[in-house]
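Supplementary notes (optional reading)

For those who missed the lab, this is the record we used. Protein: SCO family protein. Length: 215 residues.
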Amino acid sequence: MKKQNYSYIGISFIILLFGIYSVPKIVKHFNAADLYKYTKVPDFEFINQHGETISNKDYEGKVYVVEFFFATCPTICPIMNARLVEVQNEFMGNPNFGIASFSITPEIDTPKQLKAYAKRNGINHKNWHMLTGKPEEVVYNLSNDGFKLFVGKGEVSHGGFEHSGLFALVDKDGYIRSRYDEQGNPIGYYRALEEHGFDNQIKELKEDIKLLLKE
């Protein structure tokens, strides 16, 4: 009987040692900046809400979030930008963070209109640029082909346009990045909205921005 007890004690001790050895490795895994790397973002050059020329070079060395929107959007854009204001506030004092909001209605969204929109919506991070000044075709190509975020014509009730409710996350070297889902697949982009039974991914977006800022 004593011999059997010693066996149990020995096995328990081995399990305990294995646990002590494994926990730091597990913790390290969950804190590593192990985000999937997509292709590099294309070159771009637009005008921001202050009338300044902004290009992809202005974002070099910064971690930034990309969205496509329009200021007169009656549906998802107000929600998307409210979410981005949350993200902005989280990184307000960080000069290595930014946001690029590309207007898909550049003929309507002039710098003056975008500046007023920014003021109304609490958009005030110095690296949050609301970008316009190029023909629709250029913006559509940038969105659909460059960032792989859908933009197209839509129903009048939706403002006449349709666009993705997703955010792209770009690292300091200009590559689109994302975390992996529970099945080990890269999620690609981050949901701004709660839809189809899924929560938004703003918490995850903030976490991954922090990881990339440490790179």
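If you only remember one thing from this example: Residues 49 and 113 are 8 Å apart (CA to CA).
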